[in-house]
Amino acid sequence: FRTWETTKVRTTCPHCGTGCQVDLLVKNNTIVGAEPANGAANRNLLCVKGKFASYKFVASGDRLDTPLIKRNGQFEKATWDEALSLIASRFGALKATYGGSSLAGFSCSRSTNEDNYVFQKMMRTAFGTNHVDNCARVCHSATVHGLAQTLGSGAMTNTIADITQDVDTILLIGSNTTEAHPVIGSQIRQAVQNGTKLVVIDPRKIDLARHAELHVQAKAGTNVALINGLMHIIIENGWADDAFIAKRTEGFEEMKALVADYTPEKVAKICEIDPADLIKAAELYAKADKAPIIYCLGVTEHSTGTEGVMSMSNLAMLVGKLGRPGCGVNPLRGQNNVQGACDMGCSPFDFPGYQKINQPGVVEKFERAWATDLNPNVGLTSTQVLPAAIKGDIKGLYIFGEDPIVTDPDISHVRKALENLDFLVVQELFMTETAEYADVVLPGISFAEKDGTFTNTERRIQRVRQAVQPRGGAREDYRIFCEVATRMGYPMAYPSASQIMDEIASVVPTFAGVNFKRLEAIEGLQWPCRSQDDPGTPIMHVGEFSRGKGLFMAIPYKPAKELPDDAYPYLLSTGRMLYHYNTRAMTKRTAGINQLAPHSYIEMNTQNANEMGIKDGDKVRVYSRRGTIETYAAVGDQVLPDAVFMTFHFPDGNVNEITNSVCDDIAIIPEYKVCAVAIEPV
Ligand code: SF4
Predict the structure, then answer these.
(1) What is the pLDDT of residues 178-223, one digit of tens each?
(2) Using an 8 Å Cβ cutoff, are 677 and 644 in contact?
(3) Which residue ranges does the record assign to the 4Fe-4S Mo/W bis-MGD-type domain (predicted)?
(4) pLDDT tens-digit series, residues 555-573
């Protein structure tokens, strides 16, 4: 790695789930730049985060480079042997006293498939627990559960290129694509320029709404009613695909009977929209030949998130827009490898490859593969682990590359949970807000210092290649897990990430044809990929659904759990901004990005601001039943009167002090998108 020549290392962007291919420019073991590469998902495009914020954090001076042990409330540097021995003895003692189910692990959706596979294997084998989860729990777990139930597979059905090129209409629901998945946003804008009609359903006037044929600005939390209304109109007008419904689906009559009640007038009242817009949206979508649904967290992060996702597949099945090019149900996954973390079994319900813990024979299969007895009980989700820690049922927690003190809703309850643990290990790149609570902090390594794979939102498994040597004493993450597992009595070792993928292929049928040699092709491989001859699956559910017949669900609309009232009169929604990525642990270490977006803000409508005497840029206090924060007003017409919006990137003025931790009953995903708040000038 010591060379004065600049070399290029092709890898995958470490930010959002688009999976852009990027060439890192490396000189003297330092990354000095990033250039777009011609990947299948990005076609020579990169956004501001990929271009400028994908590498500066790697060489940041405040990277963790040695293990730390907290003694008398202070972190002290420790050797790897000291730290690993302490971890094994403390987790081992808790397991011996309270059982494996007193331990839990949160894995890292930013890290590789190989790291995630080994992490969940360590938790299930050495720790004896199935309480293992990843951040999909708080973003797209509703997709995993909802699409798995209705279609048989909880993943994007088509490819990014397929849904943004040569399509007639794009139905975009609850996705601020320009800011959350900027390169896909650019491709949608390009499609519109080439004649595609865009229908945006979103409570905010997002960038893509300006490019849309129609913007339906429905109130946050009303998706299920809105989709039922669209289906009512489609059935009434004879626009449904009767042949597709008869041949490929079940449950249609129950769904039809339910949506008969969702007249345009009734739905318009619930969603606070014009019924004519609903009719126009239904016609634009149903009558188009090629028309994909693209959605994101505006659909999933609700107390009815899974039902919202099932509504997406209901709608697509009704018009026969599944299993063919230019169509499908297409969730945009948030983090670079959140699809992969789910695929690799970082879930309390599933072993790798969505092989269900409670399905006959699955536990036995993994007991044979991993040569040990396994816990046969479904585990707790991350959103259940935290309340269980407050109750004292969870005693020890291993957090790999997650920062729940910033990202989880109602932070006061996260603080209580972490403070109540007997033992907390955090494995990280930086001393994060969550790491401050740890008993032991371990320094992991970044994407640019390791080999492996990420799986992007379109199920495309792509290579991550080492560009520079790890800093200081930081160690490769999967090797740390192997050390911990071995010291806890389950010997584990892998010579390379490639050999981990070989093991994955041997236990996950949908990855059976995946190996590093094949992945050297820049296009990657899209799962399912069941054999060495299988080219992968760009479009799912062709001919038949993964579950056989597609399942219609009859889903009545239920309002959000906390709505505005006299004490808290504004409806708060949350989301991402273009410049920063999640907790900013990576993006805030790029100076230019930080200057462009230095602090949190709250979008509020001019009418409300005038009523309160608040001007654009003024400091305001925002409070809910859970807490109070101070931030800056961004006044305009981005949101409707009585609605407000905040991003979740900033620890100062962190919106998650006031969001609601109430969850959906099926996926146990929190309702980030709707809660009630009050605002006053400071
Ligand atoms: Fe990276 Fe996403 Fe931007 Fe692509 S769109 S460069 S993956 S942050």
Answers:
(1) 999 999 999 999 999 999 999 999 999 999 999 999 999 999 999 9
(2) yes
(3) 6-61
(4) 999 999 999 999 999 999 9
When pLDDT is cut at 50, 70 and 90, the band that residue 583 belongs to is low
420 C-alpha to ligand 1 centroid (Å): 37
Whole-number Å distance, alpha carbon 454 to ligand 1 midpoint, is 13
Q: 421: how many CB neighbours lie within 10 A of its CB?
A: 20
| pLDDT given at position 3 | 62
Longest dimension (CA), the chain: 72
Q: Within 6 Å (CB) of ligand 1, which residues are found?
A: 13, 15-16, 18-20, 42, 46-47, 49-50, 181-183
Report the CATH superfamily, name and number, of domain 157-332: Dimethylsulfoxide Reductase, domain 2 (3.40.228.10)
pLDDT tens track for 346-400: 999 999 999 999 999 999 999 999 999 999 999 999 999 999 999 999 999 999 9
**Burial call 529-551: b when 16+ CB within 10 Å, e when fewer:** bbeeebebbbbbbeeebbbeebb
Residue with CA at minimum distance from ligand 1 atom 4: 20
**How many CB atoms sit inside 10 A of residue 121's CB?**
28
Residue 653 near residue 602 (C-beta atoms within 8 A): no
Contact at 8 Å (CB) between 216 and 273?
yes
Residue 59 CB coordination number (10 Å)? 16
How far apart are the CA of 578 and the centre of ligand 1, in A? 10
Name residue, tokens 């690799």: 344
**Ligand 1 centroid, distance to 185 Cα (angstroms):** 10
Backbone angles phi, psi at 469, to 5 degrees: -75, 145
CATH superfamily, domain 7-59, is: ADC-like domains (2.20.25.90)
Q: State residue 597's pLDDT score.
A: 67
655 secondary structure, DSSP code: G
> CA-CA distances (angstroms) from residue 193 to 190, 209, 357?
5, 14, 47
478 vs 493: CA distance, rounded Å: 9
Question: Residues 247-289: pLDDT tens digits?
Answer: 999 999 999 999 999 999 999 999 999 999 999 999 999 999 9
Ligand 1 atom nearest residue 54's Cα:
1
Euclidean distance between CA atoms 496 and 473, whole angstroms: 19
- The ranges assigned to domains in the chain are 7-59, 68-139+336-526, 157-332, 570-681
Atom nearest to 184 CA in ligand 1: 5
How far is the centre of ligand 1, averaged over its atoms, from the C-alpha of 442 (Å)? 28
**Whose Cα sits closest to atom 3 in ligand 1?**
47
Asked if 325 contacts 290 with a C-beta cutoff of 8 angstroms, the reply is yes
Express each pLDDT in 597-629 by its tens digit: 677 889 999 999 999 999 999 999 999 999 999
Question: If you measure from the C-alpha of residue 603 to the centroid of ligand 1, how many angstroms do you get, rounded to a whole number?
Answer: 25
Tokens read off for 168? 């007639």
And the tokens for 190?
A: 């390009």
Number of Cβ within 10 Å of residue 241's Cβ equals 18
Other CB atoms within 10 A of residue 353 CB: 18
Give the ligand 1 atom nearest the CA of 16.
2
Q: How far is CA 305 from the centre of its chain?
A: 13
Distance CA 35, CA 204 (A): 33
Q: How far apart are the CA of 335 and the centre of ligand 1, in A? A: 10
SS3 state at 188 = helix
CATH architecture of 570-681: Beta Barrel (2.40)
Mutational test site, ligand 1, from 183, 188, 577, max ligand atoms within 8 Å of CB: 183
Question: What is the interface pTM, i.e. ipTM, of the complex?
Answer: 1.00
Q: Band of the pLDDT at 333, cuts 50, 70, 90?
A: very high
Q: Per residue in 425-454, pLDDT tens?
A: 999 999 999 999 999 999 999 999 999 999
> CATH second-level architecture of 68-139+336-526?
3-Layer(aba) Sandwich (3.40)
